């Protein structure tokens, strides 16, 4: 996979923004290590049903 100019900080930001669905190791294996699939990559975390935080006074 070509890095396409993705720097280490951007790779970390992408990993955080995708809640781990895209791993920094996949984007920059030359910096962060092996890009082989791990257990977490095989079973990605489920995404929340809503990206909006709960309103004050409402239960989550």
Describe this structure in words.
- Helices cover 37% and strands 0% of the residues.
- The chain is mostly helical and 60 residues long.
- The chain has a domain at 8-42.
- The radius of gyration is 15 Å and the shape is elongated.
- It starts with 7 loop residues before the first helix and ends in an 18-residue tail after the last helix.
- It holds the Pfam family YdaS_toxin.
- Residues 45-60 have a biased composition (Pro residues).
- This is Helix-turn-helix domain-containing protein.
- Residues 22-60 are annotated as: Disordered.
Uncertain regions spanning at least 5 consecutive residues: none
Radius of gyration: 15 Å
Structural class: mainly alpha
Individual helix count: 4
> What is the arithmetic mean of pLDDT?
75
Percent range for β-strand residues: under 5%
Order of helices and strands: HHHH
Q: Report the sheet with the most strands, covering strand number, pairing sense and barrel closure.
A: none
Q: What's the count of strands?
A: 0
Shape: elongated
Distance separating the two termini? 39 Å
Helical content band: 25-40%
Looking at this protein, list some descriptive labels.
60 residues; mainly alpha
């Amino acid at each position: 996979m070509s890095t396409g100019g993705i720097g280490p900080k951007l790779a970390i930001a992408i990993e955080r923004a995708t809640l781990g669905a895209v791993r920094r190791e996949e984007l920059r294996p030359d910096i962060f290590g092996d890009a082989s699939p791990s257990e977490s990559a095989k079973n990605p975390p489920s995404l929340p049903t809503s990206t909006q935080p709960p309103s004050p006074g409402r239960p989550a």
